[in-house]
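User: Sequence in, structure out. Go.
Assistant: Echoing your sequence, followed by the structure tokens.
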Amino acid sequence: MEERRHSLPRRLMRMLRLRLVIPLVRSGGKPENTARAVAVGLLYAFTPTFGIQMVLTLVHWYISRNFFNKDFNVIVAMAWTWVTNLVTVPICYYAFFLTGQTILGRWHDLTGFESFSNFWETAMGRTGGDPTSLQAWEIYFSIMVEGWGLAIVVGSIPYAIIGYIVGYHWTLRVAIRWRAAKQLKKEALAKKRL
């Protein structure tokens, strides 16, 4: 039997569906809780906090649940922070940088991606051999702040806000539709049995 190979985009879409969309529609609780989970995950995904996004999501969940009585599925939220990962974070940070430079009125310093990529590699290379050590993170953050940190932080704000709003409304709509379709299917099956 011939082994079927799927293209990279098809495998990526399948992985996204299995890791992000299916947990979204299958999560229990109110659709608002699921929508809030995706919104919080995207909020932190589109901030320059790569590496601590899941921890920030957990802290957000704890504060939201215990002090504001607003619960959400923390596992779904953490999964949606993976929108930014080792592959996508340089591209996202570059978009944050350009947006931040524009917001700050620094039109004269809209560096090309190659220059930004060189800066990124230097920042990551100077962190040493162990990227998980505390010293590596201190060096990484000092380079980011000294280099283009302000522009990246300022530029991430619109993406985080838009990600939160769009993620909430899109997820709410998907969750409500999925549950309505599931209910219709259940009713049709019950009628068939009668």
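User: And one key feature?
Assistant: The CA atoms of residues 48 and 153 lie 6 Å apart.
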